[in-house]
Amino acid sequence: MTRLLPALALSLAGSLAGVAALPAAAQVALPMATVVPDGTVLDVAATGRVSRTPDLATITAGVVTQAPVAAAALADNAKAMDAVVKALKAAGTAARDLTTSNVSLAPQYRYQDGKPPVVTGYQATNSVAIRFRDIARSGAVLDALVRAGANQIDGPNLSLSDPEAALDEARTQAIAKARARAELYAKAAGLSVARIVAIDEAGDSGGDRPRPMPMLARAAMAPQAETVVLPGETDVTATVNVRFLLK
Fold first, then answer.
1. 159, 181, 209, 213: which has the highest count of C-beta atoms within 10 A?
2. pLDDT digits (tens, 9 = 90+) for 198-246
3. Domain boundary at 159, 194, 211, which?
């Protein structure tokens, strides 16, 4: 075995000399060495979560009309929608909080066995997304919309107008959780946390997830009662992946 070492050294030296002698374009790049840290690497994922009361509600409201002729369906719809928009503005809704979300016109069919479908009329739809900055007032505004002619309402989607402060709190909480978990692993392994090597934010939720429709309802036993929108609480989360060096 010892006698082979000089020959192996000569062979390796010859191979390297051969690589060096190749033209620059033909040379093969040698692999880079991976630096292994002086310690044990630990990857930890943690999620921070805080709760906030939403201060924004977005609700879609509109008008659906039908007529035998397409032009009549669209004209009737435009007239009814004009009344809805006027009701919104009269209730104090700012122009910046009104956005057209859908305008459509579609034929209506009658189907019979063995026969091609027959167009019986047309349905026109026009709806707007309404952003309520005062959630407590949104129910009364919706009632006014229905009185003005709105016959299609969807929502609400509840969110935070400024989720960044809550997100920062969730991020801080996530880092603290990751650190505590790393300390736990290090202690169990007879080591200590030397430092953080890397931090990656995996994702966050700014508290703008849609809320279920049952939150927007009219009391069945009280026909004159106002519609109530309950904000409740929404969770704001931040998830981080943290790499620690243990020694």
1. 159
2. 999 987 776 544 443 333 333 333 445 677 878 888 899 999 999 999 9
3. 159
| Beta carbons of 46 and 240 less than 8 angstroms apart | yes
Which residue reads 């928009």 in tokens? 85
**Which residue range forms the structural domain that includes residue 226?**
35-55+161-247
Q: H helices then E strands: how many in the chain?
A: 4, 9
- DSSP-derived letter for residue 28 is P
Query: Token pair for residue 232?
Result: 């409740």
Q: What is the pLDDT of residues 62-78, one digit of tens each?
A: 999 999 999 999 999 99
- CATH of residue 82's domain is 3.30.70.2970
Which residue has tokens 């009391």? 219
Phi, psi of 122 (to 5 degrees): -135, 145
DSSP 3-state assignment of 79?
helix
Q: Is residue 229 part of a domain?
A: yes
